[in-house]
Design a protein that fits this description.
Elements: E1 3-11, E2 23-28, E3 33-38, E4 44-50, E5 53-60, E6 66-67, E7 72-77, E8 83-90, E9 102-108, E10 121-128, E11 132-135, E12 140-143, E13 149-152, E14 158-164, E15 168-173, E16 181-184, E17 190-192, H1 193-197, E18 201-208, E19 211-212, E20 220-223, E21 228-237, E22 242-244, E23 250-254, E24 260-264, E25 269-274, E26 278-286, E27 307-311
Parallel strand pairs: 1-8, 9-17, 20-27
Antiparallel strand pairs: 1-4, 2-3, 2-5, 5-7, 6-8, 9-14, 10-13, 10-15, 11-12, 15-16, 18-19, 18-21, 21-22, 21-25, 23-26, 24-25, 26-27
């Protein structure tokens, strides 16, 4: 007997207050998209009248909230009525930069035994920054003088640094003495320093004439046979960094070219061409990095944003 199933989103601190505007998509255990909902003021999102089975839910809170556990979770529906699954959300925001031109990057560092690293040295230097910073409200400028900075963690393993938004820096840090790591700063007032230093792809987004296809974690598109649709793809990282086009670490392809084909242009442009009636997916493939070159994360997460295409 099918059961009415809900996702219940609660704050981790304090004591389980409901969290509204959390986007959740429901998938079969093999990842096939079923539906998507957004939680209301009561923190609940109705997932549907579901048969007894194991499903997958993918959770996207409104920034700066984040899922305490994995953003992709499995739920097992049993033969009961009004079944609810609790998902804990952290709504604690990061400290923001006082200067709108900068992003305050902060976060914690631990060793391989789970202990905070005290006095960890991070040598940060700009690779590409502006010479002048304009403050339109007062019509004044400040000279931006390039130079390296030594940032160290405190006894809790915490470090914080303000970096110019949207520009590239280089870091040389303990534990990675054999490489200089280059990274881009998100165009945000605040971001997670570990995510900035070690950029991991979170999802791919698509826009149609400037409008983002929804839901962002599992977007959908409906076309008539022989119709075409021009889209622009963007790569989003856990840090909040958003780049136009696809990262070299991922690729997109039609799962069934009898349903639709895809061609690619410049600057993230792509064209979907409907071929025959049916449903398929513009799937995301992650390029396997060379040994020692990739960034691993535990637990690992799938890149979200596979586009479901229906041709009618």
């Amino acid at each position: 007997m099918p059961a009415d199933v809900f996702a219940q989103f609660l704050t981790a601190i304090p004591n389980g207050d409901p969290v509204a505007n959390v986007r959740v998509s429901l998938h079969q255990s093999d990842g096939t998209f079923i539906s998507a909902q957004t939680s209301g003021v009561d923190g609940r999102a109705f997932l549907g009248n579901l048969a007894e089975a194991t499903y997958e839910v993918r959770v996207t809170p409104t920034a700066p909230g984040h899922v305490v556990a994995s953003a992709i979770q499995t739920i097992t529906v049993v033969d009961v009525v009004d079944q609810a699954f609790d998902v804990l959300i952290s709504t604690i925001s990061l400290d923001t930069a006082t200067d709108d031109h900068f992003c305050r990057c902060s976060g914690y560092f631990i060793d391989t035994y789970g202990s905070p690293i005290n006095d960890l040295s991070l040598h940060i230097a700009p690779s590409d920054v502006p010479v002048l910073s304009l403050y339109a409200g007062t019509d004044t400028t400040k000279a931006v003088v390039s130079g390296s900075l030594l940032v160290k963690t405190d006894s809790d393993g915490f470090a914080s640094v303000d970096l110019v938004r949207g520009y590239e820096y280089c870091v040389y840090m303990e534990g990675y003495e054999n490489i200089h790591r280059y990274f881009l700063v998100p165009d945000l007032p605040a971001s997670s320093l570990p995510d900035v230093l070690f950029p991991v792809i979170d999802r791919v987004e698509y826009t149609d004439d400037g409008a983002t296809l929804l839901p962002v974690d599992a977007p959908t598109l409906v076309l008539a046979v022989a119709a075409t649709k021009d889209l622009v793809a963007y790569t989003l990282f856990r840090s909040g960094l958003k780049l136009t086009g696809l990262s070299p670490d991922i690729s997109l392809s039609s799962k069934d070219e009898a349903v639709f084909t895809v061609t690619f242009g410049e600057l993230g442009a792509l064209t979907i061409t409907a071929v025959g009636s049916g449903s398929s997916e513009l799937e995301i493939s992650v390029v396997e990095p060379e040994t020692g070159r990739g960034i691993s994360m535990f637990p690992s997460e799938l890149v979200r944003g596979a586009l479901a295409v229906t041709v009618a």
